[in-house]
Amino acid sequence: MSNNLPKVAWIGLGIMGSPMSENLIKAGYDVTGFTLEQDKLERLTAAGGKAAGSIAEAVRDADVVITMVPASPQVEAISYGPDGILENARSGALLIDMSSITPQTSVDLAKAAKAKGIRVLDAPVSGGEAGAVEAVLSIMIGGEQADFDEAEPIFEALGKTIVLCGPHGSGQTVKAANQLIVAVNIQACAEAVVFLEKSGVDLKAALDVLNGGLAGSTVLTRKKDNFLNRDFKPGFRIDLHHKDMGIVTDAARNVGAALPVGAVVAQLVASLRAQGDGGLDHSALLRAVERLSGAQI
User: Fold this and answer.
1) 55, 11 in Cβ contact below 8 A?
2) Which string of b and e fits 22-59 if b means at least 16 CB within 10 Å?
3) Is residue 175 annotated as a catalytic residue, yes or no?
4) pLDDT digits (tens, 9 = 90+) for 130-143
5) Which of 40, 175, 223, 243 is flagged as catalytic?
6) What is the average pLDDT score of the chain?
7) Which of 94, 198, 262, 288 sits at 20 to 30 Å (Cα–Cα) from 109?
8) Exposed, middle or buried by CB within 10 Å (0-12, 13-18, 19+), for 74?
């Protein structure tokens, strides 16, 4: 396909990366991907992308490199070193990291990339798997205005709410705040669910009317069925939310912000993980409340 759109290398084709890269292909972009799972590379080629055998091969001719991996250590592993992005992407390329990592990791990456002539945006997302599939993600971005302007058409193929939040690391800071709000919200919903059921109320009816009022939220809309059906197939795993609660509590300590409720929910997420539920969706915070309320799970 020959077009004037920038050539994209996509590193990391997980729950989020696969549908997001496919949305870029649908928008007409030439996408070359690399990831560790062979079946995900096959999915990419079936969608019209190209599979690369290594990071170096994927990024060599790319105008834009997009990364979507689980956490800071993975971002560092794919970015640095002789086989990493910075050594193998061309000078002038734009690196957009869409992973959710510590703000400091993003700041350090931007600095290291600048020495190679590579521009960086941190651009974590919110909206989960459904948001990725439907291309309605909220994208919070840190970096330079000119780089943001250049990347905006790409973001528009992936999401709906696209905001430059400030300098490098700002996207990650806003994402950390997002994860704080989401976790506390899910926890409140979970407590309400257990309270309602123990009281003998029709749960579906109760959640419908609650969602129509001030207690309504995107969290409740997206997770209502998870609660009703006890379906905890992961859209966003507890393991990852555990990582994110670590990021937000650590970053808040660094700036001197108190997160009393966030700290409690961080511990509840950690305990759920310790009980073997790390691979479940974060709506499984319901299981922790059920255990605390006497259920044998």
Assistant:
1) yes
2) bbbbeeebbbbbbbeeeebbebbeebebbbbeebbebb
3) yes
4) 999 999 999 999 99
5) 175
6) 97
7) 262
8) middle
